[in-house]
Specification:
Blueprint: H1 9-34, H2 38-60, H3 65-72, H4 83-101, H5 109-119, E1 135-141, E2 148-154, H6 157-176, H7 181-195, H8 202-216, H9 228-233, H10 235-246, H11 257-284, H12 290-302, H13 307-313, H14 319-331, E3 335-338, E4 345-348, H15 349-355
Antiparallel strand pairs: 1-2, 3-4
Helix pairs in contact: 1-11, 2-3, 2-4, 2-8, 4-5, 4-8, 6-7, 7-8, 7-11, 10-11
Length: 358
């Protein structure tokens, strides 16, 4: 596997720059993840919807994000007559499992098979036993006999061998840490797509395993933005980058430079979208409830202002509630507190910063 990283010097420098940029955001978002705001929780929910929708559309041509959101709000699986509806619910449960318990998961063939089974747990199309990565149940009837004989045969010896080699290499590289986690994740994704181990579901499951690798490597920002829509929007580049290496599959010319650049660019674009969403949300205060928006707007218009002035204006809101809202604004870096005790006043963050230059 390692020879597939035999990049040209120019490509190597591009890769290093992109990794550095992504790792910068990794450090920037780590404290945000540890102290999640209401708006970040909203981003997390939206990322789940777009993650499920884009992954399933890539292979199954399923629903729009709005339709996915409506489906995820339903709880009774028995009321879902369509096969696509059931696939959405199964994949959603697999995604939730990974994002909740990734620290406890081992990326091995047993875990991969379990996630694949979960994806199709509500499916009526085929029995799950027929979708295994390693084996498939075959039933034959002998001529002149009413008896059937069933046996389990390998789907493909090549698939079994390549998956075993991939998992062995991945575990070795992961434990020895001789590859940057982003390079290791990109290589795993490439190999997964090239081996194509299951009869169906390889692309959405591959995306889920990519998320697992990123989460276990500390890239917590993917809780709040999904890379899958970027992949969906760049399918031509996806096929070109994948095909550039796959055309030399199994030879010493199988170099994954274009794929690695595509993978890193997809993460970069996702991060730019996240930064935009974060800035837009902060500006609009879309994560505040109506009461908080009214209080914050009043502070903007009358700053600097004391808590007593706010309470006097909003007579129906208790002083304790106003105190809690002010503490929340401070934690969200929407306000600054100036002074102490009875002399304390509150100003918006932009007003406090501009006053430094007066």
């Amino acid at each position: 596997m390692d020879y597939k990283f035999n990049f040209h010097v120019e490509t190597f420098h591009k890769v290093i720059r992109k990794i550095s940029q992504i790792d910068y955001y990794k450090g920037k978002w780590e404290p945000i993840y540890k102290k999640e705001s209401r708006y970040q929780r909203k981003l997390r929910q939206e990322a789940m919807i777009s993650r499920v929708g884009a992954s399933l559309r890539l292979e199954h041509g399923a629903y729009s994000d709005n339709e996915i959101a409506a489906l995820l709000g339903r709880t009774n699986i028995a009321d879902l007559p369509e096969e696509e509806d059931r696939l959405v619910m199964g994949y959603k449960e697999a995604v939730e499992l990974v994002f909740r318990y990734y620290e406890e998961m081992a990326l091995d063939q047993q875990q991969i098979s379990a996630l694949h089974s979960m994806m199709y747990k509500y499916s009526r199309a085929k029995p799950l036993e027929a979708e295994g990565m390693v084996s498939k149940k075959i039933v034959v009837t002998y001529e002149g006999s009413d008896q059937e004989m069933g046996f389990t045969a390998p789907r493909s010896f090549q698939v079994v061998r390549e998956m075993a080699e991939l998992m062995q290499w991945f575990q070795h590289a992961w434990e020895d840490q001789y590859l940057h986690p982003l390079l290791l994740t990109a290589a795993f994704a490439y190999e997964w797509l090239s081996i194509d181990p299951f009869e169906k579901g390889n692309l959405p499951l591959g995306n889920l395993l990519t998320n697992l690798c990123l989460l276990q490597s500390g890239y917590s920002f993917i809780h709040y933005v999904a890379f899958e829509p970027m992949m969906e929007n760049r399918m031509l580049e996806f096929r070109q980058a994948l095909g550039a290496a796959q055309q030399y599959r199994g030879t010493d010319r199988e170099v994954i430079d274009e794929w690695v650049l595509y993978f890193l660019q997809t993460l970069e674009l996702s991060l730019k979208q996240l930064e935009h969403l974060q800035a837009t949300g902060k500006d609009k205060g879309s994560y505040l409830n109506d009461r908080q928006k009214q209080i914050l707007e009043y502070i903007r218009l009358h700053q600097p202002i004391k808590i007593g002035d706010i309470h006097h204006y909003f007579g129906s809101i208790s002083r304790n509630t106003i105190k809690k809202d002010l503490q929340y604004f401070l934690a969200e870096e929407l306000l600054e507190k100036i002074g102490h005790r009875k002399g304390t006043v509150y100003v918006t963050r932009d007003e406090a910063e501009s006053s430094l230059f007066i």
